[in-house]
Specification:
Layout: H1 2-18, E1 35-42, E2 45-54, E3 60-68, H2 71-86, E4 90-91, E5 94-95, H3 98-113, H4 116-134, H5 144-156, E6 158-162, E7 170-174, H6 177-196, H7 223-233, H8 241-253, H9 257-261, E8 268-269, E9 274-277, E10 280-284, E11 288-292, E12 301-304, H10 307-327, H11 349-361, H12 371-382, H13 387-394, H14 399-405, H15 411-425
Antiparallel strand pairs: 1-2, 2-3, 4-5, 6-7, 8-9, 9-12, 10-11
Length: about 425
């Protein structure tokens, strides 16, 4: 009986040591017994063989590597090879190059977990700069100094940009600090994933000072400019109804462009004066217009709207239904608030492009459509609305994001502050 018990214990320990990893690139957190051997292949040529247990199907995990030199040198290389396998640095018998890791990252993470637009942007960054520099590096050999040299090169790099006011002629200018910082964040995130998969032990990008980037000055309208905008919107013809509604709705809710274009009539609670944000409409050349869910839970939210916005949407619904009846069978019922003449979802940039032309025509400073989101936040702060409420309405996960990027002091308040001390300390001059 004792013999059986000992046998069971030994058997269970054997299973534990040889249990295959649950992820193709992740090693189970148990101590593995590595068995290594050397096989002579020819003159000054040796094959290194390392065994690390079994895969999910009970197939032995054997790693092989050929080296050249003396037997003593081969023994040294075998010790290194065993360590690399032990640390999870070897897949299919070899240490991965950065280019090979990129393909794994694309397949197992990027294409599955990232938004299509984000994934496409990252792939462009990889192809244009990260792969040409790091592609041939073994992933476990990338050092902080290598990354620092890469950033130095990026500072000297140039990109083609369109020069305004010169018939769209292209000119070269250095990469911005923001662009270089984006490369750093992508590289750091990818190497973090490599650590998580136990392909490397540490992340070298964590030991590099991130490139400095100036925060861009975000443009928005003050209270007086916003009043001018709304007054001119009221003068629009019936044909421009959807543009009027879209801009007014954005001013009073601060929704993102994609969220605005993703709105459906079922998202409007006319009775309670609530707009529900559940989706976003995006565009990519290879996908066309498509719908995506917000990337964070905080982006899924309810925004209270005043009664006049409810009335505006009710009037717009009547106009919308008349358009639908007019086109009859030619109408494509998408249930979106903002659609083309045949009912199909609009390209997300259609309204934003119209807005830029419109504000230029009425003499307001030209800002992009996203500037209306900044405008909304700044005006709410000026009305002493709690910052936590503003942050929740904007769909931010953290209040700091609202404070850092979306709050701008109004000119009228700035002037008031300028005279505040004079009125307090020198009342006779006032």
């Amino acid at each position: 009986m004792q013999f059986v018990n000992y046998y069971c214990i030994i058997y269970l320990l054997t299973i534990e040591l040889n249990t295959p990893p649950t992820h193709r690139y992740a090693r189970k957190e148990v101590k593995r017994v590595m068995a290594g051997s050397i096989e002579k292949r020819g003159k000054n040529s040796y094959r290194l063989i390392v065994s690390e247990g079994y895969d999910l199907h009970g197939k032995p995990l054997i790693h092989r590597k050929t080296v050249h030199g003396t037997k003593k040198e081969a023994e040294v290389e075998l010790a290194k090879f065993v360590t690399e396998v032990q640390n999870g640095l070897v897949i299919d018998g070899k240490v991965l190059r950065f280019s090979e890791f990129v393909e794994i990252w694309k397949r197992d993470y990027g294409s599955k977990e990232l938004a299509p637009s984000t994934y496409k942007r990252y792939c462009r960054m990889l192809e244009t700069r990260l792969l040409p520099y790091f592609g041939r590096f073994y992933i476990n050999k990338i050092k902080p100094t290598d990354i620092m040299k890469f950033y130095d090169l990026l500072e000297k790099d140039t990109q083609l940009v369109r020069k305004q006011g010169n018939n769209g002629a292209k000119t070269k200018k250095p990469l911005s600090g923001k662009t270089i910082l984006e490369h750093h964040r992508l590289l750091r995130a990818m190497l973090h994933k490599a650590v998580y998969w136990q392909l490397i032990v540490t992340n070298p990008a964590e030991r590099v000072q991130p490139p400095k980037a100036r925060k861009p000055k975000r443009k928005s309208y003050d209270d007086e400019q916003t009043k001018i905008l709304l007054e001119n919107l009221e003068q629009l013809s019936v044909e421009d109804t959807k543009y009027k509604v879209a801009i007014i709705l954005t001013v009073f809710t601060g929704v993102r462009l994609g969220e605005l274009m993703g709105l459906e009539w079922q998202d409007i609670d006319f009775k309670n004066g609530i707009i529900c944000i559940n989706r976003s409409s995006q565009y990519l050349a290879d996908l066309g217009v498509f719908t995506k869910v917000p990337k964070t839970e905080s982006s899924i939210r309810e925004i209270a709207i005043p009664e006049f916005i409810v009335s505006l949407l009710e009037e717009y619904k009547l106009w919308y239904d008349n358009q639908k009846s007019f086109y009859g069978e030619l109408w494509t019922n998408s249930d979106r608030l903002f659609v083309q003449v045949d009912g199909k979802p609009m390209h997300p940039s259609t309204i934003s492009k119209w807005f830029v032309k419109f504000v230029a025509q009425i003499g307001l400073p030209v800002i992009n459509f996203h500037g209306l989101r900044h405008t909304n936040a700044s005006l709410l702060v000026a009305q002493n609305i709690d910052i936590a409420v503003i942050s929740a309405r904007l769909g931010h996960a953290q209040i700091s994001t609202t404070l850092d990027f979306y709050v701008h002091p109004l000119l009228s308040h700035n002037r008031k502050a300028g005279y505040a001390l004079e009125n307090l300390l020198l009342p006779t001059r006032s």
